[in-house]
Write a structure and sequence with these properties.
Distance between the termini: 12 Å
GO cellular component, one term: cytosol
Number of strands: 8
Bound molecules: adenosine-5'-triphosphate, 7,8-diamino-nonanoic acid, magnesium ion
Family: Belongs to the dethiobiotin synthetase family.
Helix content: 25-40%
Strand order of the largest sheet: 2-5-1-6-7-8
Largest sheet: 6 strands, parallel
Enzyme class: ligase
Structural class: alpha/beta
CATH class: Alpha Beta
Radius of gyration: 16 Å
Order of helices and strands: EHEEHEHEHEHEHEH
GO molecular function: ATP binding; dethiobiotin synthase activity; magnesium ion binding
Keywords: ATP-binding, Biotin biosynthesis, Cytoplasm, Ligase, Magnesium, Metal-binding, Nucleotide-binding
Strand content: 15-25%
CATH topology: Rossmann fold
């Protein structure tokens, strides 16, 4: 059966795009960014990082130039940002869907980015970082997802190891660590392939 994963994180610039490229490469999956705020977009980045020929890169759902929260970018550019305007692309392949920022980033006055995951019935993967303060940001995110009955497939750590942080996050959440992406000098096709090998057996 084709997997449908929604990649979220504890914030912005957390490594969602990097991890989405890894997962696309591991599963030869398609990629889709339903809401892009800020250009050039993540779809171009993932396209340049993925090596396999099967992955397709779908047109973004809503594209905004302003690098801001989608609700603010939409207001500024006078574009309606809403769930209703976002349509799941057609594919029989696995699909990796990348959110924007974290779970409660607003699309508008009522809707949030995580509502996209709910609407398309995708399994959520949370990218967590390991800076001081990230335990709280991660546990708040996971607690909100659990309280709202949104299933989480697992956690991906991105950054320099911090065993105390990683252990307490895994222990409190009861979730599986799917992958640890270390801080690399540069993220290129080579690094993406290396991590794709590591996650393939876990997914
Ligand atoms: N492990 C890593 N090693 C080196 N650079 C990294 C690593 N993870 C992320 N980066 C770099 O950090 C920047 C932010 O990462 P990324 O674009 O994946 O974040 P994001 O969560 O997708 O952000 P957004 O919310 O804008 O979609 C990028 O330039 C990326 O190449
Ligand atoms: C511009 C950025 N790279 C993302 N596209 C959008 C991040 C929105 C974050 C909103 C917030 O949590 O304050
Ligand atoms: Mg991104």
């Amino acid at each position: 059966m084709a997997h449908r994963f929604f990649v979220t994180a504890i914030g912005t610039d957390s490594g969602k795009t990097v991890f989405s490229a890894i997962l696309c490469e591991a599963l030869k999956a398609d990629y889709w960014k339903p809401i892009q705020a800020g250009l050039p977009g993540d779809t171009d980045s993932v396209r340049t990082l993925v090596s396999n020929k099967k992955s397709k890169f779908h047109e973004e759902g809503i594209k905004l130039k302003t690098p801001a929260s989608p609700h603010a970018a939409g207001k500024k550019e006078e574009v309606e940002v809403s769930l209703q305007r976002i349509e799941l692309p057609e594919t029989n392949n696995h699909l990796i869907i990348e959110g924007a920022g974290g779970v409660l980033v607003p699309l508008n006055d009522q809707e949030n980015v995580i509502d996209i995951a709910r609407r398309v019935n995708a399994e959520v993967i949370v990218v967590s970082n390991l800076y001081l303060g990230s335990i709280n940001h991660t546990l708040l995110t996971l607690d909100w997802l659990s309280q709202n009955e949104i299933p989480v497939r697992g956690i991906v750590f991105n950054g320099d190891p911090n065993p105390e942080s990683q252990e307490i996050i895994l222990q409190r959440s009861g979730l599986e660590e799917l992958l640890h992406i270390y801080t690399e000098e540069k993220i290129t096709k080579k690094e993406i392939k290396k991590y794709a090998e590591r996650i393939r057996e876990k997914i």
